Amino acid sequence: MSLRHALLGLIAELDGASGYDLLKVFEISLGTVWQATQSQLYGELGKLTDTGLIEVSAEGPRGRKEYAITDAGQAELRHWLVETEPKPHRRDEVMLRVFFLDQIGPEEALGYMDRMIDALSGRLDELARLEEIVPWEEEGGLTGNGRLTMEYGKRFMAMRRDWFVWARKQYEERRSGAGTGG
Amino acid sequence: MSLRHALLGLIAELDGASGYDLLKVFEISLGTVWQATQSQLYGELGKLTDTGLIEVSAEGPRGRKEYAITDAGQAELRHWLVETEPKPHRRDEVMLRVFFLDQIGPEEALGYMDRMIDALSGRLDELARLEEIVPWEEEGGLTGNGRLTMEYGKRFMAMRRDWFVWARKQYEERRSGAGTGG
DNA sequence: CCTAGACGTGTCACATTCGACATGTCAACA
DNA sequence: TGTTGACATGTCGAATGTGACACGTCTAGG
């Protein structure tokens, strides 16, 4: 269960963040690699506080609670980072559909691939635009890792787009091959 | 919820498959894009049968049940494939850790990246070996899509490995830059 | 005959996740 | 003064997923 560790890491980096702040980070910055809903987040903050891995370091207006990581939390974060191995948890709906593309007509299958190629190209454009806007040299915050993640995002989208272009070509070749041959 | 549709698609392609057979497919062939545990799978087969999307087409030795897709199931599968859009559900523990690599010492951070590079290289070797062994020209089954998935797996692993190599270099440059500069 | 191992189905308790709902505060502006 | 919208925290039920357990059958080989 990594939401716990995502929160722990975030609180360690962003000192004095509230649940609301953290939610924004999940939406914007961390969202590429890990997602969390609001109810999940507040629930987990409660559990982490109960377990003593984080603590409420200050309270602000509107019931705002600012969190800080405790020594126990730091130890747990470190343990997770250096002593446990990540297990890839593969679950990809886009690729799952590709698996069953035989089940629908060729027009629709090609349509699906075209839509995916368009969507991925769009995402790549967005990323390129975003990269120009973001103030990379700014102090504090996650921009160091943000840059790495941004590059990963770009490579990932490009790889997928290129694969779809290739798969589409394969599909058409198989199709025309079966048509003229046999 | 895509497990339902993964099963539906599989039963449509592999006629007369049992739960046990399907489990093998998840372990070997489909595992790259979608995972399922045994308890999940049998549970879902029961639900699909109750809903009338699949039916038990034959019973074999050892209580074996063979499943077939019904017209309603075919319609549902088709609906899912052509009329709904996949929502990417990003959750990647390996990349999540990268986000928090600042939290540990440089030796350990570089160690993590090296381990990832090794692991990915290993996976790529495995895939190359597997590709030579698999009888691609065989009739029936998933080899058509298997080939697409195989290529995707190769590109995905290679992309990640290359990214880690790049990120490692970035990390070292930032480190020595901060050390000699400033 | 016995037994190991593949084949085969199923349940149960627990944890995690999701989406919707409920509640309230503070600042800005008409 | 009223109201809009960002800030802010929380609960609840239902769906999903995980790992362990429980049970029974058929085949090959010692």
Q: What's the helix count of chain A?
A: 7
Class by alpha and beta content of chain A: mainly alpha
Q: What is the 3D shape of chain A?
A: elongated
Integer-rounded radius of gyration of chain A: 22 Å
Give the strand order of the largest sheet of chain A, numbering strands 1, 2, ... along the chain: 1-2
The N- and C-terminal alpha carbons of chain A lie at a distance of 52 Å
> What is the subunit organization of this protein?
homodimer
**What is the average per-residue confidence, as pLDDT of chain A, rounded to a whole number?**
89
Order of helices and strands of chain A: HHHEEHHHH
Annotation, overall tally of beta strands of chain A? 2
Largest sheet of chain A: 2 strands, antiparallel
Strand share of the residues of chain A? Answer: 5-15%
Largest interface in this structure: A-B, 56 and 55 residues
Domain Transcription regulator PadR C-terminal (chains A, B): 91-171
Pfam families (chains A, B): PadR, Vir_act_alpha_C
Protein name (chains A, B): Helix-turn-helix transcriptional regulator
Domain Transcription regulator PadR N-terminal (chains A, B): 7-78
Description:
The structure is a homodimer of 182-residue chains. Chain A is mainly α and 182 residues long. Chain A is 66% helix and 6% strand. Chain A contains seven helices and two strands, in the order αααββαααα. Chain A has a two-stranded antiparallel sheet with strand order 1-2. Chain A is elongated and about 70 Å long. Chains A and B meet through helix 1, helix 4, helix 5, helix 6 and helix 7 of A and helix 1, helix 4, helix 5, helix 6 and helix 7 of B. The structure holds a DNA duplex (30 and 30 nucleotides).
